[in-house]
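Our example pasted here:


***
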Amino acid sequence: MQSLDLWRLIIFAGLLVLFMLLEVFWPRHTRVISRKQRWPANLSLIMINGLVIKLIFPIGTLALAHGAAQHQLGLLNQLTLSPYLSIPIAIVLLDCAIYWQHRLFHAIPLLWRVHRMHHVDPDYDVSLGLRFHPIEIVLSMLIKLGFIVLLGVPVMAVFLFEVILNGMAMFNHSNLKLPLKLDAVVRKLLVTPDMHRVHHSRFRHEHNANYGFNLSIWDRLFNSYVAQPQQGHSGLRFGLSHWPKAEDNQQLSGLLSLPFRSANKK
């Protein structure tokens, strides 16, 4: 288990650096706010959320999956499937669960108060893929642990899913310009930066769309897909219109207190 945790950390750090470099050379849009203003708070949340998870959950996802397998808990542990079938099935089912979790965080007002910290950022780059409130991280972890037991997800499927989810979240939040033809091909299967960028639009009908992180099929299947922003990518403005570009929304203290504050309308 420890070796898988180490590999997960190494892959995460490597992909983060990779996307930071790629968006320097092939940016999709001009920055609204400098990295110096946004990155300290956004990147600090990685350490805070990691610490919160360690303190609250003594048993991690990999250990829980191992325990579920030993006690034959969950759907997939009751079936005699080859790992070549059970692992991809588990990854797809977990991805569908994450899609619906994301959609519920937009639909339920109390959950939206927590999740909106991810949306008030008026800029868009790889650091945004890591900007989630600790309360949301805890709730997400509870949901993930529940599905691991319910589905009987294999240990390797948990490892691969978390690596893919983290990698894809950084990929589709990166300020990376893909050639339009390549984007059109890739988004038939996977969520691309241009596809997810719509989800961070200031228009309500756009930020209530394109909920997927990995597979693009869920948005198409469940009627939440918006192909392009209403005003085109050149006119796309990020954030929430009723949360102006206040300094405290870029500082760690302001971000952590955001779920408990009302919209600071001008």
Summary: The chain has a mean pLDDT of 91. Residues 83-107 form the longest helix (25 residues). The chain has 13 helices and no strands.
